Amino acid sequence: MQTILPILAQLEDKLEQRICSRVNHADCCEDILQDVYLKLLQRLPQVSKAENVIPYVMKMADNAVADYFRKNGKVFTGATEAEHLPAPANEPENLVARLSDSFVGQMIQTLPPIYRDALLKTEIEGMSQKQLAAELDMSYSGLKSRVQRAKEMLRAAILNCCDFEFDKYGNIVSCCGEDCT
């Protein structure tokens, strides 16, 4: 663990520059930077085991910037904030339309209707689980279990469809199969 700290100290300026060049707002930049540091501390054992620490940490910073834009209703393009577009007002409809044409959308359609509908309404359309539970006249914990089962069923369907290769951190590195594109 001691060997990683000097590397992180060297990365401090690069991290700040990378984040601030994408956000262009000093306070937000500092907030994101602090989030990255917190994640680094929480994941220090994984970070120190990474083969290439610098790209690993930079990817964490990129993900934190993307999360910032996602939270604030903007689309992250990987460029500077000036090039970020506000999310379209009808994003759920666009997302559902795009999802229905995608591989994952097709896999969701194979789920039993009660699970498919719960997953689509909460995860894609953005309805809260409490709202959906009230709409379906069921308990909140019951709906949470239903959504969780739907996610597990979807994961199993996707994993059964294709042969995935994972790296030592659990990230997908390749996918082979007739239906995977």
From TrEMBL:
<protein>
    <submittedName>
        <fullName>RNA polymerase sigma factor SigZ</fullName>
    </submittedName>
</protein>
<dbReference type="InterPro" id="IPR013324">
    <property type="entry name" value="RNA_pol_sigma_r3/r4-like"/>
</dbReference>
<dbReference type="InterPro" id="IPR007627">
    <property type="entry name" value="RNA_pol_sigma70_r2"/>
</dbReference>
<dbReference type="Pfam" id="PF04542">
    <property type="entry name" value="Sigma70_r2"/>
</dbReference>
<feature type="domain" description="RNA polymerase sigma factor 70 region 4 type 2">
    <location>
        <begin position="105"/>
        <end position="154"/>
    </location>
</feature>
<comment type="similarity">
    <text>Belongs to the sigma-70 factor family. ECF subfamily.</text>
</comment>
<dbReference type="GO" id="GO:0003677">
    <property type="term" value="F:DNA binding"/>
</dbReference>
<keyword id="KW-0804">Transcription</keyword>
<dbReference type="Pfam" id="PF08281">
    <property type="entry name" value="Sigma70_r4_2"/>
</dbReference>
<dbReference type="GO" id="GO:0016987">
    <property type="term" value="F:sigma factor activity"/>
</dbReference>
<dbReference type="InterPro" id="IPR039425">
    <property type="entry name" value="RNA_pol_sigma-70-like"/>
</dbReference>
<dbReference type="InterPro" id="IPR014284">
    <property type="entry name" value="RNA_pol_sigma-70_dom"/>
</dbReference>
<keyword id="KW-0805">Transcription regulation</keyword>
<keyword id="KW-0731">Sigma factor</keyword>
<dbReference type="InterPro" id="IPR013249">
    <property type="entry name" value="RNA_pol_sigma70_r4_t2"/>
</dbReference>
<dbReference type="InterPro" id="IPR036388">
    <property type="entry name" value="WH-like_DNA-bd_sf"/>
</dbReference>
<dbReference type="InterPro" id="IPR013325">
    <property type="entry name" value="RNA_pol_sigma_r2"/>
</dbReference>
<dbReference type="GO" id="GO:0006352">
    <property type="term" value="P:DNA-templated transcription initiation"/>
</dbReference>
<feature type="domain" description="RNA polymerase sigma-70 region 2">
    <location>
        <begin position="24"/>
        <end position="74"/>
    </location>
</feature>
